[in-house]
Design a protein that fits this description.
The chain is mainly alpha-helical. It has one domain. The chain contains 10 helices and 2 strands. The protein has a two-stranded antiparallel sheet. It is elongated, with a radius of gyration of 38 Å. About 5% of the residues have low confidence.
């Protein structure tokens, strides 16, 4: 009887069986697909001017122009009512003193640089009171805009005054100065906003606890109209006595 050492068939079968496992394993591993490459996608920032995560998104130039037009109409209506009321007071005073009211009314209707200056200051007071008391002027409220600090908290009196006075710089050359500043700002801030650290954004983008309600808006409307009217009336008085 032959042993495995000298049996040719046994040697052949053992030689054929022993290297088969590693050969099959290497072939199988060579057929596996390579791992897919991974890519890290950076957020698209529109040339670096898009607001980053957590920042308030500012409102663009033209919606703010539309809000400003509404406020100018309101300012002119306040001016007309103030002029009529002041004219009525002149008539009453003239009747009580038995003096003609015609010359005074003509002088009042003449206006002048002084009246224009006081009217401009009255508009600044209108904006300041509205934005410090409520955060939105009449025009901004109609278009669902609000002025807040850069950290999202309500606009304060000091910043509201700064941005209102700086508007007269931003409005130069039909608003080109303010427009260019907004184009170079991530949050659409004009110069007044940058100096006051404020942002004009949609009300939906502000935390509810930082929004003021309808009662404060009614109070802001009354106080803003009174401030605008009082300053304009001061201009009428200065024009009469000058």
């Amino acid at each position: 009887m032959s042993t495995p050492a000298n049996d040719p068939l046994a040697l052949a079968s053992s030689f054929a069986a022993s290297p088969a496992a590693p050969a099959e394993s290497s072939v199988a591993s060579s057929l596996e697909p390579p791992p897919l490459p991974t890519f890290s996608m950076e957020p698209f920032t529109f040339g670096g001017y898009a607001a980053t995560a957590g920042e308030l998104t500012g409102v663009g130039f033209w919606p703010r122009v539309a809000a400003r037009m509404v406020d100018l109409v309101a300012h002119y209506l306040i001016g007309i009512c103030t002029g009529m009321f002041f004219g009525f007071l002149i008539g009453v005073a003239a009747a009580l003193t038995r003096q003609p009211s015609g010359p005074l009314i003509q002088k009042l209707m003449g206006g002048g640089v002084g009246v224009f200056l006081f009217a401009t200051l009255g508009f600044a007071a209108y904006e300041t009171v509205f934005e410090s008391v409520h955060g939105s002027t009449l025009g901004k409220r109609m278009l669902s805009m609000v002025v807040v600090q850069e950290d999202g908290t309500p606009c304060r009196l000091g910043p509201a005054l700064i941005r209102s006075l700086a508007y007269f710089l931003d409005a130069l050359f039909f608003g080109v100065i303010g427009y260019m500043a907004m184009q170079n700002s991530q949050q659409e801030q004009r110069h007044g906003d940058k100096w006051a650290h404020t942002v004009v954004c949609k009300r939906s983008g502000v935390k509810p606890e930082n929004l003021r309600g309808g009662g404060r808006f009614a109070a802001a409307l009354l106080l803003a109209a009174l401030a605008d009217s009082a300053i304009l009336m001061s201009g009428f008085v200065v024009n009469l006595v000058a």
